[in-house]
């Protein structure tokens, strides 16, 4: 029986489906853990498959490849180095489990399966996995380790079972998606489980971007005294070891004490949003194999912020911006777009869409005759820009990054096959008011890990001038929408809080405005179904976590 246990937390960035690459990451983490003197390496949820693998786990050959990777790691542990708790899909007795496999000295010394399978938000575990039985602890070096998996600690039952069957330390592998303010939620959750069980608590989270979901790391350890003992950095890979010693904890009871370690600084909400956008874009572009990105730069706040994030995530040399003026584009928009590209250090070209507008006018004249111009002609401008950007993408190889924010996507203030045309959108879950805040923050800070310039990168006039799509003379967004502070407050109530129009009106919002926003929100569902993926930031990504029917007669 040992009196000291060193556990390495392998906060890794796996790629879904890349079992060989993920296996290499786990091996490298184990090598680093050995240098740190670790006895045991803990990996995040489904690290060999990548989280979330969706229907990949229904493919027998994929699950078999994960089994083979476990066997390779099992053989590695014959070297006498650290034991390994590796998370993987695991088929046993004709059931597929979300599992943790415990490897030591060339043997599988235990297995535990996820019990509580989430089926809300971005999760769909019930669809592909079978729930495991209630778990007791695993014995390693004489220490009884409880290994509940992710959702198993969001309710008390599984931890209670582990504690009642003699568990001494809780090790929790997770793939917990990022959203604003969630770090504190996780820590408070851990404190609850510590209070209930009396056991120290280690929370290991994945890091990295997977389609629309971002995993922000931020793994941590709590002592049995409920105090934060160690915390890993957010938004980057890291292997760090925490040490436990057998002794006395609060209340005079015998138990395990977690020794204090490094506590990484907590990020502000606005910095965490920016980091999530950087990581989401970087991983989406790199993991899908695109060499660069293409962005339509309009002189407005959304495209400027998108360009800044892209330069910080990928480096300015991998970002190509294009200004596509029409006869309605103001001189200050041309000036601002150029100034922004120069400030960030981006390649910048100008392609006028006026010839395309005239060509479409002539093409459609026999059908439209003398009908007055309306939104049709406005949308043709946006679609001409979409065609231009996609042509550049096809010819030169960069992925088009769209620039619409959540406020616009919510109410349909966007053009299908126009400004919605592209491969990814870093602002998809960012409200317009937050976009302004992010611009001001970026001008005052160089984010950790950013590849862009330290100086102010977004000209002040872009942030201070009234937003406009510039699709007709003297157009302003507020001609079509409520002021963004009002609009965003209503949308947050409708989307994040699921309030009715009447409930929002009782909170002080104008009844007619709320009803108008509700109608716009519901009418735009068909557009959102066709939008590119983008970074999840809030508690409810509108395209994935708010699933409303397109044909929908309910209003209220």
Task: Walk me through the structure.
The relative contact order is 0.09. The model has no long low-confidence stretch (mean pLDDT 94). The protein starts with a strand and ends in a 28-residue tail after the last helix. It is built from 17 helices and 20 strands. It has helices at residues 19-35, 60-76, 125-128, 157-164, 182-197, 269-288, 301-314, 331-344, 354-368, 375-396, 406-411, 432-444, 460-464, 484-495, 501-506, 511-523, 525-528, and strands at 4-11, 40-43, 83-92, 95-104, 107-113, 138-140, 143-146, 169-174, 201-205, 207-210, 213-216, 220-222, 228-231, 238-248, 254-258, 293-296, 319-323, 347-350, 399-402, 424-425. Strands 5-4-3-2-1-14-15 form a seven-stranded mixed β-sheet, covered by helices on one side. Helix 1 packs parallel to helix 2 (60-76), helix 6 (269-288) packs across helix 7 (301-314) and helix 6 (269-288) crosses helix 12 (432-444). The longest helix is centred in the last third of the chain and has 22 residues, at 375-396. Helix 1 (19-35) links the parallel strand 1 and strand 2 (40-43). The radius of gyration is 26 Å and the shape is elongated. By secondary structure, the protein is α/β, with parallel strands linked by helices. It has two domains: 4-266, Nitrilase/N-carbamoyl-D-aminoacid amidohydrolase (4-Layer Sandwich); 270-528, 3-Layer(aba) Sandwich (Rossmann fold).
Residue fraction in strands: 15-25%
Q: What's the overall average pLDDT, rounded?
A: 94
Strand order of the largest sheet: 5-4-3-2-1-14-15
Sheet of most strands:
7 strands, mixed
CATH architecture of the largest domain: 4-Layer Sandwich
Structural class of the secondary structure composition?
alpha/beta
Total beta strand runs: 20
